[in-house]
Design goal:
Blueprint (H helix, E strand, L loop, with lengths): L8 E6 L9 H13 L4 E5 L1 E2 L20 E2 L10 H13 L4 E5 L4 H11 L3 E4 L4 H8 L2 H17 L2 E4 L2 H7 L6 E3 L19 E5 L5 H21 L4 E5 L11 E5 L4 H7 L2 E4 L9 H8 L4 E3 L13 E3 L5 H15 L5 H7 L4 H20 L1
Parallel strand pairs: 1-2, 1-5, 3-4, 5-6, 6-7, 7-8, 9-10, 9-12, 10-11, 12-13, 13-14
Helix pairs in contact: 1-12, 2-3, 4-5, 7-10
Length: 368
Amino acid sequence: MTAMNKKPHLAYLSGKDLSSAWSGAEMRIVEMARHLTNDFDLSLFHRRTHGSSFNSRPRLEKLDLAPPLESSDQKSLWPDWQCFQNLRRIHRQHPFDMLLVSHIAGLPAALLFMLRYRVPMVFDDHNVESEVARFERGLIGRMGVGVLENIGCRVAKLTLAVSERDASILSRFAGKVGVVPNGTGFLHRAPNPVSRGNTVLFFGNMNYAPNRNAAEFIAGELAPSVRAQNPHVCFRIIGRNAPTLQADGVDVLGYVDDLVNELDCATLVVVPITDGSGTRIKILDSLARGKPIISTDKGAEGLPEFDALCIASLEQFSDRIIDHIAAHHENGYRFSEADETRISKFGWEKIAGNLVPALNSVLASHSK
């Protein structure tokens, strides 16, 4: 343990490439790291896979970052010797008091390091990765993910889940599980007064199969159905590595620099997600900007009820969109005060603040 007058040294090890923070998992890592610096001497590592500059995104610039952990294949689940060597090099210069590992791709190097140096580990399993692997990997890959996740949860002093539902699954093989929900960084920003009428928005990282499937559903089925009833409705699909989709009234923009502006200009947000795990940060971001949302049960899984969050089956999406736009034009839309109170609890500063006591408890137990 470090001296009493110094902050504990926390190695925050991301299995994700943080060169351009965008997906839900990456935003959770970056925002948590930003706020944990208030209580910890934090070194943030990541597995850079595409050779882009580590500090290329503005949201990373204010962090005191350790050198990235280079890797040739982000999806590899084999022990990454170079990652381990980099961790060891920094540890020798400034010993770590604890490892916080986010995403299973960071586990192999973390497990090697923990076994060698007996540093306690906390595993932030912000998706139940064995569930995600069912539609992103083959049989051998699914088995590898399941085994690695199982080992990580068993070895970690504390495993973190984003919802009670995920916690109940992970508790089957984890020693101790805590719930630290996802959050949003879009609170407390002045809204953009510009508005595009009749605009339906969907956004997310299109490398993630459930998001990609949702985008294809919008272009192939939802947009034609809605526009057959109201040809003035337009759809915008935003996200890194968006697929090439051709459909009338559907704009596929790919990555955008200012997602807040896109949210503020939208009439409503749709989340036609049918697979996946964890909780959807896109819903929290949309609520933070005061936007109504139509989502499937799966899309809203693990989140509390909000007045602005309408649950519908895929077959009901078209009618729900038409009804909402008609009501919007007739009466306008007002975000409820109850929802403003509910979403205010999901700012990243509060989420990270709730994590600090749990991390300190792990440190205290280890020092005994």
